[in-house]
Design brief:
The complex is a heterotrimer of chains A (1004), B (109) and C (189). By secondary structure, chain B is of the alpha+beta class. Helices cover 17% and strands 28% of the residues of chain B. Chain B has one domain: Folate-binding fold. The model of chain B has no long low-confidence stretch (mean pLDDT 95). Chain C has 2 domains: 85 residues, Probable tRNA modification gtpase trme, domain 1 (Gyrase A, domain 2); 80 residues, Alpha-Beta Plaits (2-Layer Sandwich), CATH 3.30.70.1520. Classes of the chains: A alpha+beta (1004), B alpha+beta (109), C alpha+beta (189).
Chain lengths: 1004, 109, 189
């Protein structure tokens, strides 16, 4: 059984007990424990079930590489699935539950899959469920969906907050082990700004566990002093609990800081995403131990050798009473020695190697009385939910048992792989080091930055160096080089002197025993979480999945939440062997960020709730909100769709507002319309290029409706242009179009006609603008008093400055409804006051505010087009019957050349018409008019579509506009529009102007 | 995410401050041009693997358009310069030729 | 006399790691033109007492400030009530030059973020190095803050002023409050 030791535990505080629960069972750990160490201390080795076969899964590792110990944490708004127990710091009241089983962890019905595992090899789902096709949608997929997925998605809204932080530094060091800390010091001595990120809560990495001395001091002491030194330096920032998640172009790095995961009751954001821009990056990310592939290596109790050592030394936790060590290298001997020293039994070290002489570590183990069996390995592990023993065999053979050894832990070591993830994220290349059987960074092929020089350097074991001397020497050199690379001069200092025992060479062991038969291979796990075995990878190779990327996806090797941190190298070694090619030729799969999963909350940062989007509000926004506004998003603006009164539906409100505008008086908040000042000696010439019609001939004091096309001829915007004076125009754009059209103008001015004298300014938000519309519009303005708004003083399509009700205003006599209409612009800061004044004088005139839907109906009754309804980026003015707005006098304007292209001039382009349903109903918006026959794909031919459709309360019938083949020539014809509801609508082609065709009402 | 230095305001900012505007140094063809010329101007782009001249606007900054010479393979930025020019400045061309032997302005098809 | 109100009526937030406040109506004039013209420099000087600042800088003195916006644009900050008078004087002084002077006072909102953690709050929202090493008094930066355009400068020790669109004043205020939330100290500025 696993338990707490009486000694050791450098990271835990035995004076501070911490209560937590696992699957509702109350347990106790110590401050400083991880959830994994606390579970082991409570003899909870079984922590989950695997994804495919529901095999029992125990804790394997002690760090972020852990594939098995994934738990649900918390409840309700604090619930989060798939959290690694090995990186979860224990806190008082922590609630954890295991995943992927039913009804319980101990007894899981899904484990039947394990019995069937020989019938469910790689590709099983692909092959099994492809035939018969119809069954997929209704039978197979619902069943598989039910079984798929690891953990549960949270149901409630997250209670926590998150944030981003933009940080800048000269040298960023990722990893706070001895390599990272030393590199930081060597860089910082130059004066460079250095930022150091460490994913755990502790500095020093695993060096203090592995032993040795630095400058004559124990490693622990060296780390403590080094951290204290660095903390004193003003140009160094140390950040624990912050993982370097990804390295991106031009020195961009994401850091993932976990602020309150370990103290959930603390104020402040839970996670902070550091968006770092570094001059140079040092990846001191350490190395990860590899499992060995032998039968039963997934049974709870089989663990990584160094992790067993970590639990003993860091947390004072014994993973079991009797540990068999199985290894292909010297490092695992340290585990045997540590266990022996704390009084636990190590019945044997099974060393797959055959060496001529004992290394110092081997000699030490033997001296400690540990039995060392060279040339031996594990044939298979005994046990089901917990290891009970191992069958020992010769590594060179096929697995014949030479001896059974009882034990409850198997500590395995297949060698070490440098963590090259961050080095590789942005294109750093790797090479195969045959001596250590590992991929390591090729420092001559580093990622390239903005200036064309390398911007990432690996250091320490992440760079393939093992042994304190080499690690510290490499880190020192890399730190100095990084300082130089960012323009600083490093001090001439020597690396600290690290001393540790020499190690004998390791021997690559990809399968144990090397001649393992099919039965053993089918029980030798590569990927514990996704249940991929040696036999699956061999099958993939046999079936032709020769590319490592294909084999990965076929078998799902390395596709689990741990992204193959343990399985990757072993898997591609098996694949290489099956393909009979060297490992470097097989290569690795691509390393992609993040290094370990980061929370969606951190990615979103502050952008949630009220600040999810940069919502734009007009000066009268709060009034609208208080008066029943049903909001419609228009770009980032929010506009009232209608003002709903109590007892009314939204539709009722729209009908009421639409009628009232024609009968009495309506007020529309038109502040969202874009307003651009265009000024300069060449302003007229410039606008002539931008609009399809002539603007330079407009007289000061007058307005003109204009169309804008892009250079490719399609309509992009429309609006009313007012000429302010000889040099100055004010151009209105559509709502949400202000910034786009402003940018469009600046683009042409800056990049094509830069010698023209024109300045543009966006003054959209300087003004609140109110459309005062309806037969009583003039009376309302006259009631306010001030400027003369009579027909003679301010005629249709004129504008004037003046005052109304004491407000300084600019009044435009323009109409988008066909009614008598003024648009009045006042300062934004006075917008609400002006609106209030209008509402007051309008009381006796039947005033009602109206929203965007009434606006739409009113314009549709008049046949006025709307950008975004009648246009969709493929429509040209000619399609909409707007030939009158295309100047024939101008040699050039944007879009003119494009309109001459053959497709643009094609008489078969669909043209704008009005559509009137034969029974008065409202046509479905977007519906297509069908024609005779079918096209080449067997689909019904089309001859038009509805672009806008409304019920008009003024005409008491459905009205619509649409684009129809030869439409204007087919007045009176009836078209059929199949709706998505199964009914076919019929509509007659009519003029798009349904109301007041002679325009008498707007011109009074 | 790239970093770019705006030649108009001198600020160095991350890509999110900028808006990409496609290939630089296009010649406009208006009314009177041939269909081929117009098609080339409107639609045909270089898309080279290597040195590329492109337009950027410092949309969240000074609002100005400028040009950048960038390697589409390594993302190296050779330099930026104001948009009011018909071709890249000579010193930048020399720098690129030094960094990418064999490259010269106008030699790209 | 003026009925002018700011977008958020001078709202404040003081329950976080820095104080956030919407400042009163601020006169703002966009002046576009060739900044090297002597007549323009003179007109700016005579109306504000300040020289046209260098690229990326803001000149401030009392109630006036002039910020460099782009190679052909400065933003003049002045008392709200002085705006029309100054524009008239600028137009008169620059009548022969090609310039554009326009009132944008009502198109903007002005916020202040103050306290020892002000730089940290800014660093959470703007992709700009706002550390003391890189961002100092006298500098003026146009950039984005979270998802909207903004310009900011150091108005006083530990005090940033931020200009944004008036329509997004609520967004900016809410954003600053989230970034200044209690317990969110960064400890690195």
């Amino acid at each position: 059984m696993s338990t707490r030791l009486a000694t050791q535990g450098r990271l835990v505080n035995r004076d501070k007990a911490v209560r937590f629960s696992f699957n509702s069972a109350p347990m106790t750990g110590y401050e400083g424990d991880t959830l994994a160490s606390a579970l082991l201390a409570n003899d909870q080795m079984l922590v989950g079930r695997s994804f495919k076969y529901h095999r029992p899964r125990g804790i394997v590792a002690a760090g972020p590489e852990e594939p098995n110990a994934l738990v649900n944490l918390g409840v309700e708004g604090k619930f989060e699935p798939n959290q690694r127990a090995t990186t979860t710091e224990l806190f008082e009241g922590l609630l954890a539950t295991s995943q992927n089983h039913w009804p319980s962890l101990e007894f899981d019905v899904g484990a039947i899959n394990a019995k069937l595992s020989r019938f469910m090899p790689a590709g099983f789902y692909y092959k099994m469920f492809i035939h018969p096709r119809p069954l997929w949608k209704h039978v197979y997929e619902p069943f598989i969906r039910q079984a798929a997925g690891l953990g549960q998605a949270p149901k409630g809204r997250d209670w926590d907050t998150y944030e981003h932080l933009y940080a800048f530094c000269d040298v960023l060091v990722v990893g706070g082990g001895i390599a990272g800390l030393q590199a930081a010091r060597s860089a910082a001595q130059s004066g460079a700004q250095v930022l150091v990120l460490e994913q755990t809560a502790h500095w020093g990495g695993r060096a203090p566990v592995d032993g040795g001395t630095v400058d004559g001091k124990p490693v622990d002491k060296f780390v403590e002093e080094l951290v204290a030194d660095l903390a004193e330096l003003p140009n160094v920032t140390l950040r624990a609990r912050t993982m370097g998640a990804g390295v991106y172009d031009h020195g961009y790095v994401l850091g993932y800081e976990r602020l309150t995961d370990h103290t959930p009751d603390m104020d402040g954001p839970r996670h902070r995403l550091w968006r770092i821009r570094a001059g140079h990056i040092i990846t001191a990310t350490g190395a990860i131990e590899r499992p060995l592939s032998f039968a039963g290596n997934d049974i709870p109790g089989v663990m990584l050798a160094a992790s067993v050592r970590d639990y003993a030394i860091n947390y004072g936790v014994s993973a079991g009473d009797r540990t068999v060590v199985v290894t292909n290298n010297d490092d695992a001997y340290r585990t045997a020695l540590v266990l022996k020293n704390v009084g636990l039994e190590v019945p044997a070290i099974l060393d797959a190697r055959v060496l001529p002489v004992d290394s110092p570590l081997m000699a030490e183990a033997k001296a400690a009385g540990i039995r060392v069996m060279m040339g031996h390995g594990v044939a298979k592990v005994q046990g089901a939910k917990r290891v009970t023993g191992v069958s020992v065999c010769a590594q060179a053979g096929e697995g014949a048992t030479v001896e059974e050894i009882a034990c409850d832990v198997v500590a395995m070591s297949g060698g070490w792989s440098p963590v090259v993830h961050l080095w590789s994220h942005c294109g750093g290349k790797l090479f195969w080091d045959a001596d250590w059987a590992m991929f390591r960074p090729d420092v001559d092929k580093a990622p390239i930055g903005a200036d064309g020089s390398p911007f990432v350097s690996p250091a320490g074991s992440a760079n393939g160096h093992f042994g304190l001397t080499e690690i510290l020497g490499d880190a020192h050199a890399m730190g100095r080089a990084a300082a130089r690379a960012t323009g600083f001069t490093p001090k001439k200092t020597n690396a600290p002197d690290g001393v540790c025992l020499d190690e004998a060479p390791m021997a690559p062991v990809w399968l144990m025993p090397q001649g393992a038969g099919r039965d053993l291979r089918a029980k030798a796990w590569l990927d514990y979480q996704n249940d991929v075995k040696v036999s699956d990878v061999q099958l993939a190779a046999q079936e032709g999945f020769e590319s490592v990327e294909h084999a990965k996806r076929y078998t799902t090797l390395g596709m689990a939440t741990d992204q193959g941190k343990l399985s990757n190298i072993n898997g591609l070694a098996i694949l290489s062997d099956a393909l009979n090619q060297p490992i470097p030729q097989t290569g690795t799969t691509t390393f992609r960020p993040p290094y370990t999963p980061i929370s969606m909350g951190a990615i979103g940062g502050e952008a949630r709730g009220d600040v999810f989007q940069p919502i734009r509000r007009t000066p009268m926004h709060d009034w609208h909100d208080a008066n029943g506004a049903d909001w419609e998003p228009v770009g980032h603006w929010r506009r009232p769709y209608a003002y709903v009164r109590s007892g009314e539906s939204v539709h009722d409100a729209v009908m009421r507002e639409t009628k009232n505008v024609r009968e009495n008086l309506g007020l529309l908040d038109a502040s969202t319309l874009g307003k651009l000042i265009v000024k300069g000696p060449d302003a007229g010439r410039f606008l002539d290029m931008l609009y399809t019609n002539m603007m330079s001939t407009l007289k000061p004091g007058k307005c003109r409706y204009g169309l804008m096309c892009g250079e490719n001829g399609f309509l992009i915007d429309d609006g009313v242009v007012a000429r302010i004076d000889e040099d100055t125009f004010l151009c209105h754009t559509t709502t949400g179009g202000a910034e786009r059209i402003h940018a469009h103008m600046e683009e042409w001015l800056q990049t094509e006609w830069w010698d023209w004298q024109v300045y543009v300014a966006n003054v959209t938000e300087q003004y609140a603008q109110v459309a005062v519309v309806g037969p009583n519009a003039r009376k309302a303005l006259e009631a306010l008093g001030g400027m003369d708004v009579s027909k003679d003083a301010l005629g249709f399509m004129g504008w004037a400055d003046g005052t109304l009700g004491g407000f300084a205003v600019r009044a435009y006599r323009i109409s988008f409804s066909g009614e008598l209409s003024y648009e009045i612009a006042v300062r934004a800061s006075e917008g609400q006051a002006f609106w209030d004044a209008l509402m007051k004088v309008g009381t006796d005139l039947g005033v009602m505010p109206y929203g965007t839907e009434a606006l739409h109906i009113l314009r549709a009754e008049k046949g006025f087009i709307m950008i975004g309804d009648e246009t969709d980026g493929t429509v040209i003015p000619q399609d909409l019957g707007l030939h009158w707005a295309l100047s024939k006098k101008k040699d050039d304007y944007l879009g003119k050349r494009a309109h001459l292209r053959s497709h643009m001039a094609d008489p078969a382009r669909w043209k704008l018409v009005g559509l009137e349903s034969t029974d008065g109903s409202t046509l479905p918006d977007g519906a297509y008019a069908v024609a005779e026959g079918t096209n080449a794909n067997g689909q019904r031919n089309m001859q038009g579509r509805v672009t806008s459709s409304y019920h008009s309360p003024n005409l008491n019938k459905g009205i619509a506009m649409g684009l129809v083949l030869h439409g204007p020539d087919r007045m009176g014809e009836v078209l059929e529009f199949p709706g998505t509801d199964g009914t076919t609508y019929k509509a007659k082609i009519v003029s798009p102007v349904f109301y007041d065709p002679d325009g008498e009402k707007q011109n009074v | 995410m790239l970093i770019l230095t705006c030649p108009c305001c001198g600020q160095t900012g991350e890509e999110s401050e900028f808006h990409a505007g496609g290939e630089a140094h296009l010649t406009r063809f208006g009314p009177g041009s041939s269909d081929d010329d117009f098609e080339n101007y409107m639609f045909m782009r270089q898309n080279p693997k290597g040195v590329h001249f492109e337009r950027w606007r410092h949309v969240y900054g000074c609002g100005k358009w400028f040009h950048a010479a960038r390697c589409t393979m390594t993302l190296e930025i050779f330099g930026t310069y104001p948009a009011q020019t018909l071709e890249p400045p000579p010193d930048l061309r020399a720098k690129i030729s030094a960094r990418r032997p064999g490259w010269s302005w106008g030699a790209v098809s | 006399m003026s009925k002018a109100v700011t977008a958020l009526n001078g709202v404040r937030f003081t329950d976080g790691i820095a104080d956030v406040a919407e400042l009163p109506m601020q006169g703002m004039i966009t002046l576009r033109g060739d900044l090297s013209m002597a007549v323009l420099k003179k007109a700016v000087k005579s109306n504000t007492g300040l020289a046209v600042p260098d690229q990326g800088q803001v000149a401030q003195d009392g109630a006036f400030a002039v910020a460099w916006m782009s190679p052909d644009e400065v933003l003049i900050l002045c008392p709200y009530g002085d705006v029309q008078g100054i524009i008239a004087k600028l137009d008169k002084a620059l009548i022969k030059a090609h310039v554009l002077a326009v009132d944008v006072s009502d198109a903007r909102a002005l916020f202040q973020i103050a306290g020892v953690h002000a730089r940290a709050v800014m660093a959470k929202l703007a992709p700009v190095d706002v550390s003391e090493r890189s961002f100092q008094p006298g500098m003026f930066r146009r950039t984005r803050m979270a998802q909207t355009a903004a310009a900011f400068w150091i108005a006083d020790t530990d005090t940033f002023h931020i200009i944004c669109f008036r329509s997004q004043a609520r967004y900016m205020f809410d954003l600053l409050c989230v970034a200044a939330q209690k317990g969110s100290e960064v400890g690195r500025f």
